[in-house]
Amino acid sequence: MLVLRSLKGERMDTLTQKLTVLIAVLELLVALLRLIDLLK
């Protein structure tokens, strides 16, 4: 990851930040779905 960031610069940083945010949101959605399944 460090090599890619050094090669492509800020564009890779923004992409990685967006990807990490998307992954976090997806994990939250999965956790909510599991809680809903447990409540049923």
**Mean pLDDT over the full residue set:** 83
Radius of gyration: 16 Å
| SSE sequence, one letter per element | HH
Structural class: mainly alpha
Shape assignment:
rod-shaped
* Count of separate DSSP helical elements: 2
**Sequence stretches where pLDDT stays below 50 over 5 or more residues:** none
Main sheet characteristics: none
Span between termini = 42 Å
Report the portion of residues in β strands.
Answer: under 5%
Q: In total, how many beta strands? A: 0
* Tally of distinct domains: 1
- Range of helix content: over 70%
Oligomer: single chain
Question: Would you mind describing this structure in some detail?
Answer:
The chain is mostly helical. It has one domain (2-39). 92% of the residues lie in helices and 0% in strands. The chain contains two helices and no strands. It has helices spanning 2-8, 10-39. The longest helix is centred in the middle third of the chain and has 30 residues, at 10-39. The chain is rod-shaped.
Brief characterization of the structure:
The protein has 40 residues and is mainly alpha-helical. It is built from 2 helices and no strands. The chain crosses the membrane at residues 20-39.
